[in-house]
Amino acid sequence: MHPLGIFEAVMIFPHPAGSLRLKVEFFIMNNCTSKHFILVNDYLNMHGIDINNHKDRYFTIGKNKGQKLAFPLEKREINVIRQVKNVNKERFVSDQLIEAQISTELTLEMRKELIETLFQYRGAFASDNEPLGAIKGHEVDIILNVERPYPPLLRRPVYPASPRARETSEIHINELMKLGVLRKSGHNEEVEVTTPVIITWHNDKSRIVGDFRALNTYTIPDRYPITRIHETLTQLSKAKFITSLDALKGFYQSSLTPHARKLLRIIANCGIYEYLRMPFGIKNASSHYQIIMNTIFPN
C-alpha cells in the first residue's frame, strides 16, 4: 500500500505542569478507515507517556503516575458515529429527497420513521451523478419505408445558432456523452443520416432537442396500444395504497440496435454525434417504452 500523502499535525496532551505538544506525521491512505490512531513507541518513550489500555483507559506523563489523565474514547466514538450518520442522513434528505412530497397528514414520528426507512434503502434511489442503467432484453430499432441510398431530406445540415445556443448545446452534449447517451462519430465513419438539434428554454432551464421530423416521416409506425390514464385510474379506484415510480431519464435507459444508432446521428456546431440510447422526439418512442413497462410489470 502506498500513501496518497503525508501531513504533520501538532497534538496537545493536557497536564497540570504544562501541556505536552507533539508533532505527529499522519499518512493519508486510499479507502482506509480506523477507529483509533497510534503513537509509536519512540514518541511514548521519548516523552514518558504511559497508556493503560483497559476498560477505564487513561494515560500518565513522566514520573507523576498518580495523575491519571483519561480520554473517554467509547463515548467519543459513539458521538462521532452518530454525527457521521446524521451528516449522511442530512445530505441524503437535502440532495435526494429535496423534491419528495411527504404527506402532511403524517405525524412527526411517522415522518421520522419514513425518512429512516428511505435512508436505510437509499441505494435503491438514483441520482444525477450516477451512471444510467440499461434495460436488458429489449433494444429499440427503427425501420424506414425507404431503401438506401436515403433521400437527401434525411441528411440535414446544422441549424444556425446564437453564441449562447452554441455554448449551451456543447454543454448538453458533453453531459450526455458522460452519461453514455451519446458518442462522437469518427471522421472516417460513413454518415448517411443527420438530424439537426435546437436548444429550447423554459423558466431559464435549457434542453437540447433533435428535430426528428424528417426521420419520423420515413419511419414505419408501430401498432401498439398505449395505456389510457382514465383506465388506469379506474383499476386503482379501490386501492388503499398507491405507489408510483418514476424512472430517472427513462428513455435514456433504453438501448438501441446498431442499425438504429446509425439513423440517430445528430449534427451540431461542434460535430456529429450518435445516440446510444433512445432519445425523445422519435416516432414509436412511447410505444417502445410502453412495451418495456408491460414486460417489467405484466400485471
From TrEMBL:
Give the InterPro entries listed for this entry.
DNA/RNA_pol_sf, Retrovirus_Pol_polyprotein, Rev_trsase/Diguanyl_cyclase, RT_dom
Query: Which intervals hold domain Reverse transcriptase?
Result: 204-297
Q: Which Pfam families match?
A: RVT_1
Show the Gene3D superfamilies listed in the entry.
3.30.70.270, HIV Type 1 Reverse Transcriptase, subunit A, domain 1
Its recorded name reads Reverse transcriptase domain-containing protein
